[in-house]
Design goal:
alpha/beta, D-Maltodextrin-Binding Protein, domain 2, nine-stranded mixed sheet, two-stranded antiparallel ribbon, 11 strands, about 35% helix
Length: about 325
């Protein structure tokens, strides 16, 4: 069995499938992280992969619009909300696929599979905000935070958070919070990274992001003036999310798509994702990145939300449009 190396991590050779067609992947995951994995998959299997990148919501909307005529064979999403919204368009996965995944991240319906986990966190300035941290995400609409908070309404994980807010507290409560944040002059940024950079540059003091972004900055600069924290235990702002993948039912390349999913769940690929992406591995036997809090801690502070129920993406997009955020 051959062994190749990806960024210092050995990947065991996988069974090569003779692919007559190119595997087409619609990806809501960024090329900087997954590009090396795609290349390694091609090298290990002999399957050519063509990747179309965009935001998770953009790719999900495109798949819905294209229907059975979509060229996509597989959708790799940044969050479970988009996966749930498209679950009826996905082929059933073998039961064994999800059996390898930790229960907290598992999709019991076997319509998609988690490829990594993450948490929502509050990032903040270590120079201007460390002594004035909110206990709840709802506190950020208070007057003392006026103009000091960043968010990214077009981000897929933020939209999954809003869906969870709607699910647990109702549409009226979610809309009231969005409106209150808008009225409090919350600053719009295009993504998670620009929020963190905005804090470091003194533009804002707080941001709402996924846990793995800050590590990309502190790894380069130990004195980077931004830190992250969670809200009080059980707050919806501590939502646990997953990235995951599903095979498009209309695909003619299901075997190749399944091979890609098997590759993503392999120990070596999981090790790469957590070490390079600072995300949680979804199977046992993987050494998590040192910057991650333990899953026990995450379980204690996270709200009780079944990520499999976060499928009403369109309802969330409508709410965000009504709030003037899209």
């Amino acid at each position: 069995m051959k062994t190749t190396v990806l960024s210092g991590i050995a990947l065991l050779g996988m069974t090569t499938i003779a692919a007559a067609d190119t595997l087409t992947i619609y990806s809501g995951r960024g090329e900087a992280l997954i590009g090396p994995l795609i290349q390694q998959f091609e090298a290990e299997t002999g399957i050519d992969a063509e990747v179309r990148y965009g935001s998770t919501s953009e790719m999900a909307t495109l798949l819905m619009e294209e229907g059975d005529a979509s060229p996509a064979d597989l959708f790799w999403a940044q969050d479970a909300g988009a996966l749930g919204a498209l679950s009826e368009r996905f082929a059933d996965l073998p039961a064994a696929t999800n059996e390898t995944v930790l229960e907290v991240f598992r999709n019991p319906a076997n319509k998609w599979v988690a490829t990594s986990g993450r948490t929502r966190v509050l990032v903040h300035s270590t120079e201007r905000a460390a002594e004035d941290l909110p206990q709840s995400i709802s506190d950020l609409s208070d007057e003392k935070y006026r103009g000091r908070v960043a968010w990214a309404p077009t981000n897929g994980s933020f939209q999954a958070f809003v869906t969870a807010f709607r699910l647990t507290q109702g549409d009226d409560a979610a809309k009231a919070w969005l409106d209150a944040m808008v009225a409090n002059d919350t600053k719009v940024y295009k993504n998670n990274g620009t929020q963190i950079e905005g804090i470091a540059n003194g533009e804002v003091d707080y941001g709402l992001v996924n846990n793995y972004y800050l590590g990309r900055y502190t790894a380069k600069d130990a004195e980077f003036p931004v830190a992250q924290t969670h809200f009080a235990a059980g707050d919806i702002g501590n939502l646990v999310l997953v990235a995951g993948a599903g095979i498009v039912e209309a695909s003619d390349n299901k075997d190749e798509a399944q091979a890609f999913i098997d590759f993503l769940l392999s120990p070596a690929a999981q090790q790469f994702i957590t070490l390079q992406g600072n995300e949680y591995p979804v199977r046992t036997g993987i050494i998590p990145a040192a910057t991650l809090e333990s899953l026990n801690t995450v379980s204690e502070i996270s709200p009780k939300v079944d990520t499999n129920t976060l499928g009403d993406l369109e309802g969330t997009l409508t709410l965000l449009r009504d709030a003037g955020l899209l």
